[in-house]
Amino acid sequence: MIDPALRIGVVGATGAVGRVTLQCLVDRGYTNIRAFASWRSAGGTLGTLEVEEATTQTLGAGDLDVCFFSIGTQLSRDLVPIAQAGGAVCIDKSSAFRLEDGVPLVVPEVNGERALEHTGIIANPNCCTIPLTMVLAPLRDAAGLRNVRVATYQSVSGAGADAIADLRAEDPDDHLLRMDWEFDGVEFDEEAKLRAETRKILELPDLPVSATCVRVPVVVGHAESVWIETQTPLTPPEAERILAQAPGLRLEKVPGHGHAIGSDDVLVGRVRADSAAENGLVLFLVCDNLRKGAALNAIQISELLVGASLPSYFGQTAS
Question: Which domain range does residue 45 map to?
Fold first, then answer.
């Protein structure tokens, strides 16, 4: 459900995800939108919107119903509580609050009901966790999950607008893969996030999840190879039928990055038996990481709250 009068703030509006968030909001019919960024961008414009500086005063003034945050983890920790205290429901796309007890971590197609449990902050999952859990959830419901292994191939837009500019400025033949995540000597924090967030969203705290994450020289679109072992057998045709009927998924024989760009769906295909595991399946998925992997998922979360018809979620604007 869409409430065009909803008073919306987009913090980090000049970044890669922030710009897509603004475009998605306009495309969906929202009109009461404000754009916030750092002092360096304040005073500029994004289309018809003037960019305001994100400060304690502007975010805590009490004149926003919902605020989307597309900024770094530390900045989110600093600014989200300010907007929350001002009465806004904050939907944060960083890792700042994802694993905190009492903060819902939501993919609307998977656990949308959890959004209604918020106390002012809702976390938007990692851009690879979102499509992964959308594929795993219907298979979990049909046959249970024994373990999951995943390899991600993540575009540079996941690292922000500067990374996109760097890629475009380089000779593609000379481009080096940059693993821009923190490394603890065993795994990247991105891999740990993918495991922990998948468990929280699916409500399977002991699910074995093994992840290997890499950056690839692609501007937009995250891809994942996924190996799944189910509790009870599923043939590839049965799995395809289940996935084809799941919300937000589009079944394709061979999903590709080009098909995913600009799409609101998660593309999934190449479903086949894994002979290396009992009840094993292998599949491949692709997602526009700036849309469903970030901006659109957050907007859909806010629309769940409007659809709940609970005025306390959005001050006086919800009905």
Answer: 8-125+294-314
Q: Among 127, 128, 213, 287, which one carries the catalytic annotation?
A: 127
Residue labelled with tokens 């093994």:
210
Lowest mean pLDDT among 32-36, 110-114, 171-175, 300-304: 171-175
Same structural domain for residues 281 and 134?
yes
Our answer to whether residue 213 is catalytic in this structure is no
How distant, in Å, are the alpha carbons of 170, 212, 230 from that of 130? 30, 16, 20
Q: How many domains does the chain have?
A: 2
Q: Which amino acid is present at 58?
A: T
Residue 287's DSSP bridge partners are 222
Check if the beta carbon of residue 279 is closer than 8 Å to that of residue 125. no
CA 218/CA 152 separation, integer angstroms:
13
Contact 236, 272 (CB under 8 A): yes
Tell me the torsion sign for CA atoms 237, 241, 243, 248.
Answer: positive
pLDDT in tens, 105-164: 999 999 999 999 999 999 999 999 999 999 999 999 999 999 999 999 998 887 777 787
DSSP at 183: B
The answer to whether the CB of 305 falls within 8 A of the CB of 90 is: no
Question: Cα separation of 238 and 112, whole Å?
Answer: 25
Q: Examine the residue annotation and report whether 118 is marked as an active-site residue of this protein.
A: no
User: Is residue 319 domain-resident?
Assistant: no
pTM of the model: 0.93
The CATH number linked to 150 is 3.30.360.10
What is the pLDDT averaged over residues 17-38?
96
Instruction: Name the least confident of 151-165, 180-194, 268-282.
Output: 151-165
Question: Which of 128, 222, 257, 287 is flagged as catalytic?
Answer: 222
Which tens digits make up the pLDDT trace of 144-154?
999 999 999 99
pLDDT reported for residue 220: 87
Provide the 8-state DSSP code for 186: S
